[in-house]
TrEMBL record:
<keyword id="KW-0963">Cytoplasm</keyword>
<protein>
    <recommendedName>
        <fullName>RAE1/2 domain-containing protein</fullName>
    </recommendedName>
</protein>
<feature type="compositionally biased region" description="Polar residues">
    <location>
        <begin position="154"/>
        <end position="176"/>
    </location>
</feature>
<feature type="region of interest" description="Disordered">
    <location>
        <begin position="613"/>
        <end position="670"/>
    </location>
</feature>
<dbReference type="GO" id="GO:0005092">
    <property type="term" value="F:GDP-dissociation inhibitor activity"/>
</dbReference>
<feature type="domain" description="RAE1/2">
    <location>
        <begin position="461"/>
        <end position="592"/>
    </location>
</feature>
<dbReference type="Pfam" id="PF00996">
    <property type="entry name" value="GDI"/>
</dbReference>
<feature type="compositionally biased region" description="Polar residues">
    <location>
        <begin position="640"/>
        <end position="649"/>
    </location>
</feature>
<dbReference type="GO" id="GO:0006886">
    <property type="term" value="P:intracellular protein transport"/>
</dbReference>
<feature type="compositionally biased region" description="Basic and acidic residues">
    <location>
        <begin position="650"/>
        <end position="670"/>
    </location>
</feature>
<dbReference type="Pfam" id="PF22603">
    <property type="entry name" value="RAE1_2_domI_C"/>
</dbReference>
<dbReference type="GO" id="GO:0007264">
    <property type="term" value="P:small GTPase-mediated signal transduction"/>
</dbReference>
<feature type="compositionally biased region" description="Basic and acidic residues">
    <location>
        <begin position="178"/>
        <end position="189"/>
    </location>
</feature>
<dbReference type="GO" id="GO:0005968">
    <property type="term" value="C:Rab-protein geranylgeranyltransferase complex"/>
</dbReference>
<feature type="region of interest" description="Disordered">
    <location>
        <begin position="149"/>
        <end position="189"/>
    </location>
</feature>
<keyword id="KW-0343">GTPase activation</keyword>
<dbReference type="GO" id="GO:0005829">
    <property type="term" value="C:cytosol"/>
</dbReference>
Length: 670
């Protein structure tokens, strides 16, 4: 589908009346649209100027994120070397230029708090070594070179502050000198014991102190250096946008319906936390959690269960909330027979709505949705995709490619070509100067120029990603996936949502946690989020040692952090864009909400506008039901054929479609 030429890739000339073109970049809504269009038989060309999938929905390894940070910190104006492409614009046409640089990310700042000794020459483990030439099969020299590069990191990972000799390289002379030193120490100890007498109680006290010291040493987290983080960089999958999937949300329904769920794996969020009076506590959610909780009195348990039962069918009892529709949900909770402790849990950890802006109906809807999602996959309503949120757009891209979609990364677009008479967009011109015709164009908001977006007012999202050495709430299990909402200190300020991921999510290395902070922006990301970070974590080793000397292990320590602001273009009306052709459809970037419902709704709405008679992301055909025309031979994997000569017919079994869909959902639930 592509012709390679030097460092770039050149598309063969495409011109087809049924072609859907998706100029860069491509996030979750665009990927869903591409998958739905390809599934319905449309020809799809999906181009992206970046070298990775997902746009601002992507996930990166640690080294990949460092490259992304550097790219956004060193933004420069992109100059066009040649304007030969303008010669392709006819007199009856006009061009809509697209942005050449991404302005959706601002105020990027990364900070390293871990020890950076021997970190300059460390390379990421698993990185491909330099090969002498293409096609050379002898890799013994490359393997030896890779081993040599890893040696300094291995010695650093032992956690020794001085230049000690590793056990593997100990010599006979080292052993002899060590033995002589130990004999001398034992002799002096015997002499000391002969000159002094000890009381039995003092001995017992000493034993107790030794035991407590040993226990504290065992609980103390392993010291992680920056060199180790770089070396294990491929263990990290760091999301630019932090979200969870509601177990009965629109995205889960779409994944199971379209069978895209077979391309991904998920883990259940294990606990929901609350931050109250300077402490982090676990919130009881399910009926079993409520009655097993030791932090609630029996009266509070009855109050909570009664209110949650009401929320499940609140529409059937309008008299209970009719007089409070204009009030905030926080004010409504105060009128119910709930303690302040329960009001706090419901508002910030169950409904998860704004204390100042959400009315009573919004709060009741959010509480009901939370309760309906409980128990489908676990004790909490949320799922998290293994390897990060960036896997979801890639899953839909894979489905699009299965049904014939064409994908081109590192392929930018110069402009859209509009016919002056009809006012419709008829083609695009890429950076090679090629003209590609299509009937429909889907573009992400960030690539529209300032001339097109003169009347658009954007919101901003403050984001922070931390690598820490401990969980924010340590328990017996170190494999916890947690969500925590920290309410604002001042009224009118946004609450901060925190999602903590462990190594079993395949997003971070062992003995570390990946912590995502998200809130609506009022200032820069660091100004918005760093005060909350300081409440929960220690930013330097000195503070941690002071806490330990005070009798406890102290707060979890931040090893590395990055702060950035991301544009939130959700909710922008189409009429806000000037002179936009009717067959050009605009998708927004990530929003600030916890779930993905907005992206799914937007994708389905745009698809129905383009193809109102087509079903949105129908289940794929059963490979056994596909009939191939021609010589009657069947390929090895008919389910992945994108041939135009294939057609689907209903299965001779009456319940084949229902059984296959049901099995898919049952497997997903398991």
């Amino acid at each position: 589908r592509e012709r390679e030429g030097g460092h770039g890739k050149r598309l063969s000339r495409l011109s087809c009346s049924s072609l859907l073109a998706l100029p860069p970049p491509q996030g979750l809504p665009e990927s869903i649209i591409a998958s739905a269009c390809s599934r319905s038989g449309q020809r799809v060309l999906h181009v992206d100027s970046r070298n990775y999938y997902g746009g601002n929905w992507a996930s990166f390894s640690f080294s990949g994120l460092l490259s992304w940070i550097k790219e956004n910190q060193e933004k420069t104006d992109v100059r066009e070397d040649s304007e030969d492409w303008r010669k392709l614009i006819l007199e009856t046409e006009e061009a809509i230029s697209l942005n050449k640089k991404d302005n959706t990310i601002q105020h990027v700042e990364d900070v390293c708090y871990a020890s950076q000794d021997l970190a300059e020459d460390v390379k990421e483990a698993g990185a491909l070594p330099k090969l002498p030439a293409f096609g050379v099969s002898d890799t013994s020299e490359a393997a030896q070179e890779s081993e040599k590069e890893c040696l300094p990191v291995e010695s650093q990972s032992l956690g020794t502050e001085s230049c000690e000799t590793s056990p593997e390289s100990v010599t006979c002379n080292d052993l002899e000198s060590t033995t002589e030193r130990k004999d001398a120490e034992m002799t002096s100890e015997r002499e000391h014991l002969c000159d002094a007498t000890f009381d039995q109680s003092a001995l017992e006290t000493g034993k107790t102190e030794n035991v407590s010291t040993a226990e504290a040493a065992a609980l103390e987290p392993k010291k992680i250096t920056y060199a180790e983080i770089v070396k294990e960089g491929r263990r990290f999958n760091i999301d630019l946008v932090s979200k969870l999937l509601y177990s009965r949300g629109l995205l889960i329904d779409l994944l199971t319906k379209s069978n895209v769920s077979r391309y991904a794996e998920f883990k259940n969020v294990t606990r929901i936390l609350a931050f109250q009076e300077g402490r982090v506590e676990q919130v009881p959610c399910s009926r079993a959690d409520v009655f097993n909780s030791k932090k609630l009195t029996m009266v509070e348990k009855r109050m909570l269960m009664k209110f949650l039962t009401f929320c499940l069918d609140y529409e059937q009892h309008p008299d209970e909330y009719q007089d409070y529709k204009e009030c905030t949900f926080s004010e409504y909770l105060k009128t119910q027979k709930l303690t302040s402790n329960l009001q706090y849990f419901i508002l910030h950890s169950i409904a998860m709505v704004s204390e100042a802006d959400s009315d009573t109906i919004d709060g009741l809807k959010a509480t009901k949705h939370f309760l309906q999602c409980l128990g489908r996959y676990g004790n909490t309503p949320f799922l998290f995709p293994l390897y990060g949120q960036g896997e979801i757009p890639q899953c839909f891209c894979r489905m699009c490619a299965v049904f014939g979609g064409i994908y081109c990364l590192r392929h930018s677009v110069q402009c859209l070509v509009v016919d002056k008479e009809s006012g419709r967009c008829k083609a695009l011109i890429d950076h090679f100067g090629q003209r590609i015709s299509a009937n429909y164009f889907v573009v992400e908001d960030s690539y529209l120029s300032e001339k097109t977006c003169t009347n658009v007012c954007y919101r901003q999202i403050s984001r922070a990603v931390l690598i820490t050495d401990q969980s924010v709430l340590k328990t017996d299990s170190d494999q916890q996936i947690s969500i925590l909402t920290v309410p604002p200190v001042e009224r009118g300020q946004p609450a901060v949502r925190i999602i903590e991921l462990c190594s079993s999510t395949m997003t971070c290395m062992k003995n570390t946690y990946l912590v995502h902070f998200t809130c609506s922006s009022t200032k820069t990301a660091k100004e918005d989020l760093e005060p909350v970070v300081q409440k929960l974590f220690s930013l330097n080793a000195a503070t941690e040692r002071e806490s330990e000397n005070g009798g406890g292990l102290g707060k979890p320590r931040v090893l590395w952090a990055v702060y950035f602001n991301m544009r939130d273009s959700s909710g922008i009306d189409r009429n806000s864009y000037d002179c936009l052709p009717s067959n050009v459809y605009v998708c927004s970037g990530p929003d600030c909400a916890l779930g993905n419902d907005y992206a799914v709704k937007q994708a389905e709405t745009l698809f129905q506008e383009m193809f109102p008679k087509e079903e949105f992301c129908p289940p794929p055909p059963n490979p056994e039901d596909i009939i191939y025309d021609g010589d009657g031979t069947q390929p090895e994997d008919p389910g992945f054929s994108s041939s135009s000569n294939t057609k689907t017919e209903p299965s001779p079994k009456e319940n084949s479609d229902g059984d296959s869909c049901k099995v898919s959902e049952e497997q997903h639930e398991e």
